[in-house]
Amino acid sequence: NDLDKFVKYHNAKLLCPMPQPFSYSICQPKHYPVGLLSIESHDGENECGIHSHSREVNSTSSLKIPLSAATVLELTGRQLLHGYMNHRFGTSHKGHQLVTRARQFSSFILVIGNMTDASTLDPKDAIIVQNKDELLIPLLLDELPTAKEFKDAINSISPEQQRFARAYRKMQLASSVFGICVIQIKPQLEALLCLPKDSLDKEMKLTQDLMELFVEYQVPSDLMSYNGVSENVAVDDKISNVRSNVKSVLDVVNVEKEKQLKMEHAKTDMAMEDVFQRAAAASTMGMRMSQVMYCKAPAAQQAMLERSSYDRIPTANLAKKSRKFRKKSAIAPDSNIENFDDLMNEIQEETEMADEISSALDQPVDPLLIDADDLLDELHQLEAPNALAQPADASSGGENKSKITCTKSRPTPPASDQVVDFTRIPQILDAAVEKSGETNALRSTTIKTDCWRRNRQDNLVANSKEQLLSPEDVKKERNKAFDLLDALSRSGSLPIAYSDLHVVMAVTHCFDKDVMSTVVCDNINPIEKLECSTLLLASAVHGVPARELIADINELQRLEGALPLLLQSQENNEVANENEAQEE
């Protein structure tokens, strides 16, 4: 922790522009933020945000996100490139996690994937973050071999195999570019529904209804958008028109819900009527059989038969369950339906109760349905010498009850109009590392996600609960987010203006031993080693020579003696390149 603090302090004095915390507000210009996005590192005890070299790129180009073969999103928001320098001593590893939070009555969509070229993000996962949700996504950093280790490994194989290995490593380096895209929902809803900008800022209920119709029912946006002809209509009139359209769609949905509820009630009533008829028939048959057996049995066994028979007959339980069912199913036909899902759950419980009663009647050892010969055999067994001790055991053992199981001085380099190919940055950095001579420590690092966790409030007054999202849950959230994105973009035909793309490229400087062994035993200053790696990464991110990133002239003179290959002047670079070309 002390070394991390010193590295941040030292880089702030050494570099211009200095590394910035990876923490960004999600908001429109001149608006209150709707959420927060950050990457944090932790060592088991402390958590802190990471610092990265950042710059805005591709200000004139758009981003493509293919949702399917038929739908490709076009995002015209800003794009930022980040370079993160991680360091590792020995076998120790720091944990990292992507953290995103949404404010109350606010929402946005988070898309995670890898960059496949200069303008395409391959989406791996997506989720809707809303209403004070806190999403924690662990990040797994996997180190790739250095350029020197790779060359040494393929040195002994054939030329054909070397070409295959180089192509595969090129693919690995390109896939190490991690993409995080944040898409704001409310401004895109305004563009989709033909409403003026900022018209939905105070329409919280209307926004929630729109999201429900898009996500849960996949209602086409044309049924709810503003259908007026004149553009000189007041904003309130346009919103009223959209609200009226939304109400009409909700009325249709509610009618379909009521119709479905009536059908489920009819099915349940028919099932229960069948159960009651079977129960009455079985009870009548059982009583007649019991009377016959009672008359034929000797006097010694008649009292015993009475006790064992009444203990076995589940008439009391059946009557109790029947009364409970009739009480629960007593719903007025004109009652209002406030919660469709809860009512459907109650109907499901009633159906399960009917099945339970039916299964109780179908038990093969139930005295109401057993055969007369079986009952006579049991009576003959009662005539044994130990008949006085066995009736209670026999009656209890023969009963099989059904059970239900639950489950600084210089400004930051401006964004260039030239399109930056994000997948080329790791290859440029790999070549720069090999040229600088620092080939044994700096490794390109891929970023993958692990099990997601989400803290969510069920309502405004409840406490937040942590939920571990399984792969099936993540897939469901991904499908919901893709359905909403498809609706918001009219299947890709409407560009999305309010979005942020964060492209993260990570590298790891590896030390073979821990900090004390590195300093004392190997006599190595880790700060000097990290300076070289930091300059290499910052140069690749900002697209300028490393010497132009050093803020202090005294520090530049010191580093020129320590890192001559990295900090040689531009004239020397041109001469060296010409010499290499002549030699080739």
Structure, explained:
- The protein is of the alpha+beta class.
- The chain contains 17 helices and 17 strands.
- The chain has helices at 2-14, 147-154, 159-175, 186-192, 204-216, 235-296, 299-312, 315-328, 340-361, 372-381, 391-398, 425-436, 471-488, 515-521, 526-542, 553-562, 570-583, and strands at residues 20-21, 23-26, 35-42, 47-49, 51-57, 63-66, 72-75, 78-89, 95-102, 107-117, 120-130, 134-143, 177-184, 442-449, 452-456, 465-469, 499-511.
- It has a 15-stranded mixed beta sheet that branches. It has a two-stranded antiparallel ribbon with strand order 6-7.
- A hairpin with an 8-residue loop joins strand 2 (23-26) and strand 3.
- Helix 5 (204-216) packs across helix 13 (471-488), helix 6 (235-296) packs parallel to helix 9 and helix 8 packs antiparallel against helix 9.
- The chain is elongated, with a radius of gyration of 36 Å.
- Residues 310-316, 318-337, 361-376, 382-409, 574-578 and 580-584 have low confidence and may be disordered.
How many strand segments? 17
Q: What is the approximate shape? A: elongated
Averaged pLDDT, please?
A: 79
Beta percentage is 15-25%
Which class do the helix and strand fractions yield? alpha+beta
The largest sheet is:
15 strands, mixed
Short descriptors:
584 residues, two-stranded antiparallel ribbon, 17 helices, 21% strand
